[in-house]
Amino acid sequence: MNLPNKLTMLRIIMIPFFVFFLLSEIPGKDIIALVIFCAASLTDLADGKIARKYNLVTDFGKFMDPLADKLLVCSALICLVDLGRIPSWVVVIIVAREFAISGFRLIAADNGIVIAASYWGKFKTTFQMIMIILMIINIEKLSILTALMMWVALALTIISLCDYIIKNKQVIGQTK
Question: What is residue 80's predicted lDDT score, i.e. its pLDDT?
Fold first, then answer.
């Protein structure tokens, strides 16, 4: 359990705290949730950079890092639907993509193939996180920017799904 993997696990541990504050009635809840979400998002940047710089890339990290991202983003999106800040159909598409990729990765892993995150997937995650931050702060004057980020994140979600399938089509139909 090296430092990048510990940061990934820390991100997972932060999720329930983020959800609690975002959905609570505590004064200043959005600010607290925003700080937790940003801190969790920064661990995503840090773990990857540290892993690559110090040659600490592991199969555990290749699997758990994207899973931690999915858990963080999906938890945030579901909460934002509950708060009326994002349409549910957008979240259904994003979550469906995450489940599809996770299933795809499991099939690959079962056949001894580890699929690392692609640049499209990283762009998608970055734009989703920016969109989520804008939706958490929920400032009316930024509503056009927030809507634009939602559409960009949605487009990147679909593009990254297609990219994963095309680049890893050999995984489809494989059995042990």
Answer: 98
Expressed as residue numbers, the domain containing 158 is 3-171
pLDDT at 132: 97
> pTM for the whole thing?
0.87
* Band (176; pLDDT cuts 50, 70, 90): low
CATH assignment at residue 126: 1.20.120.1760
User: What percent of the chain is helix, strand and coil (3-state, nearest 5)?
Assistant: 80, 0, 20
152 in any annotated domain? yes
C-alpha span between 119 and 174 (Å, rounded): 25
Contact 22, 30 (CB under 8 A): yes
Mean pLDDT confidence for 74-100? 96
Residue 137 has pLDDT above 70, yes or no: yes
Angstrom distance (rounded) from CA 17 to CA 10: 11
Count of domains for the chain = 1
Asked whether 118 and 164 are in contact (CB, 8 A), the reply is yes
Tokens representing residue 77 in the block: 């999106």
Q: Has residue 27 been placed in a domain?
A: yes
Cα–Cα distances in Å, from 69 out to 12, 32, 110, 169? 8, 19, 21, 23
